[in-house]
Specification:
The complex is a heterodimer of chains A (about 160) and B (about 400). Chain A is α/β, with parallel strands linked by helices and about 160 residues long. Chain A is built from 3 helices and 7 strands. The mean pLDDT of chain A is about 90. The chains are: A alpha/beta (about 160), B alpha+beta (about 400).
């Protein structure tokens, strides 16, 4: 299956779930999808297309939060990034841990760094932050305020 | 665990918690393993990471694009080229430029030199943990040659600072090529000898064959990458499947084995070293003339992805720009992030004396094992990390005696 066939199949199979397809370059495609369709799309890509899940990256935008789920179909040298946007009032999305084990750690990481809740994750505890890090402080958010007056952190150029 | 352990109720083998870690200042990836053992058998493993979480992603949002290259270079001392490589790929994808051909060749040479020294480092340490200090000495002696090569090419033994968005900082001089080729070729005979010694040794077979098996299905489910996945029969290599640099113009083979045990991971890495030598030789002899960088002025708004094959597997960078001189988001995923969780498959069901080599087989940072301590459930220290290595070495000695080669 080449790139065009794959994108065509995706559009036909998920007509309502896919909100837009942005073909950035011959090797990169970004697909905006409905947040509640993430498990179905991930399942399809992982199980039927045999795409490999690379990682997910959470991005704090001005009005909403974004998660990009990066998959790669190595046979056709293509990176597919599924983009979901979540309103800041309801930061919640279904966990992908039921689809592949590889989602466990990254969902824990996004949970603690950006404060997004992954519904259905079996063990949503901290991954990187120390135990004395206060609850409800999310370091990767844009409005993050330094909470520890004794901390020596790089404040940029 | 011997007589030091608490005896459980009614003669049941007691469960003992074995913490390994958490960290040592020398490690690039501090991690804390909590092994639960019943007698000699590991029944559960839990992992904790983040002891040295430096917030590089957050840091990167406060740096200009050129500075970020140097920040990501310092994520890891051993993969000091993989991160800048993936990062520059991501920014180049964002602005849709490509480095000139000569820069692509130089990048490929540096990346393969890094793979060579990283695999040699791992091989030496694996030998040490199994009680083969000769392997350790040989492998690290060869690694010195490679580090010398890197010093000739880049001026540095470890942090090469070669990469910039749009090209490389430093050219390879024509008069440096013959001594570099000579040094690279000088390691081949010893490496051949080492390969035969490792692959034919019955004691090593007994210690590593069938130990810590990661099945192909599990490798796919955990989305394992690099030699860890390739040893389990997943024939995927970013260099082959998603070529970057000049890997598609060079003649080399992807190394895949089928069994997924520690032995196969050793074989994959040893054979990959020969491929790396082949790649460096071809790149140096075919180095084209021309510019080594292109002028990059502004970074437009947008997003870019770069992924490359680091020594341990795929290294992935995602960069988002809003048109200013700093990234608004920079996501970094190192290969060990995907490979570490596979311990749940490989360590459970094995013995505690195999745990050291199985934990090492994916090539995480090794120094953590020097901070190992074995405690019983009352918190009393029974073994230190050195003891666990000794246990592993003693097992090899026993097998040697049984096979009659002691």
């Amino acid at each position: 299956m080449n790139r065009q066939e794959l994108l065509q199949t995706l559009r036909e199979r998920f007509p309502d779930e896919i909100l837009g397809v942005f073909e950035k370059s011959p090797k990169r495609v970004y697909i905006q999808i409905q947040p509640d369709a993430i498990v179905r799309l991930a399942q399809y890509l992982f199980k039927e297309i045999q795409a490999r899940f690379i990682i997910a990256s959470g991005v704090d935008g001005r009005n909403q939060m974004e998660i990009l789920y990066h998959f790669t179909v190595e046979d056709i040298d293509l990176v597919i990034s599924l983009r979901v946007t979540l309103p800041k009032t309801k930061l919640e999305i279904a966990s992908l841990t039921s689809v592949f084990t590889a989602a466990h750690w990254i969902e824990r990481e996004i949970h603690e760094l950006l404060g997004i809740n992954f519904v259905g994750h079996p063990k949503l505890k901290r991954l990187l932050l120390p135990e004395d890090w206060p609850e409800g402080v999310y370091p990767l958010r844009k409005d993050y305020q330094e909470w520890d007056p004794t901390a020596i952190r790089d404040r940029g150029v | 665990m011997g007589s030091n352990c608490d005896q459980g109720q009614g003669g049941v083998v007691p469960r003992t918690i074995v913490p390994i870690g958490p960290y040592h200042p020398l490690q690039e990836e501090p991690e804390f393993f909590i092994l639960t053992v019943e007698g000699e058998m590991v029944v559960d493993i839990d992992l904790q990471i983040g002891y040295n979480h430096r917030g590089i992603e957050k840091l990167s949002e406060r740096k200009a694009y050129d500075q970020v290259t140097f920040v990501v270079e310092r994520i890891c001392g051993i993969c000091s080229t993989s991160h800048p490589f993936a990062y520059t790929q991501a920014v180049e994808d964002l602005i849709s430029v490509e480095a000139p051909p000569r820069a692509q060749f130089i990048r490929t040479i540096i990346a393969e030199g890094e793979r060579l020294h990283s695999h040699l480092l791992w091989l030496g340490l694996a030998g040490h943990f199994l009680g083969y200090n000769t392997v350790f000495m040989w492998a690290w002696k060869l690694r010195e040659e490679i580090l010398d090569v890197m010093e000739i090419l880049s001026g540095n033994r470890n942090n090469y600072a070669m990469f910039k968005v749009g090209g490389v900082w430093r050219d390879i001089q024509a008069h440096d090529i013959p001594p570099v080729l000579k040094k690279i070729e000088s390691i081949i005979p010893t490496l051949e000898k080492l390969k035969r010694a490792v692959i034919d040794d019955p004691v090593l077979h007994a210690r590593t064959k069938g130990i810590g098996i990661l099945s192909k299905e599990a490798a796919i489910d955990y989305c394992a990458v690099g030699p860890t996945a390739r040893a389990s029969g997943v024939d995927r290599d970013i260099r082959k499947n998603c070529p970057y640099g000049v890997y598609d113009q060079i003649d080399w083979d992807m190394i895949v084995t089928q069994n997924g045990d520690v032995f196969d991971k050793v074989v994959v890495r040893i054979n990959e070293m020969f491929e790396s030598i082949k790649i460096i030789q071809q790149c140096l002899s075919r180095l084209p003339q021309g510019e080594i960088d292109c002028v990059v002025k502004d970074i437009p708004p947008g997003e870019g992805i770069g992924h490359i094959e680091a020594p341990r597997g795929e290294c992935f960078h995602y960069v988002r720009s809003d048109g200013t001189n700093r990234p608004v988001r920079h996501k970094i995923r190192a290969p060990t992030f995907m490979n570490l969780p596979t311990f749940k498959e490989t360590v459970i069901g094995g013995t505690i004396s195999d745990a050291a080599i199985v934990l090492a087989a994916i090539d995480p940072c090794y120094c953590c094992t020097e901070r190992m301590a074995v405690r019983n459930t009352k918190g009393q220290t029974l073994w230190t990390g050195e003891d666990l290595i000794r246990l592993s070495q003693e097992k090899t000695a026993q097998i040697k005696a049984q096979i009659g080669r002691s």
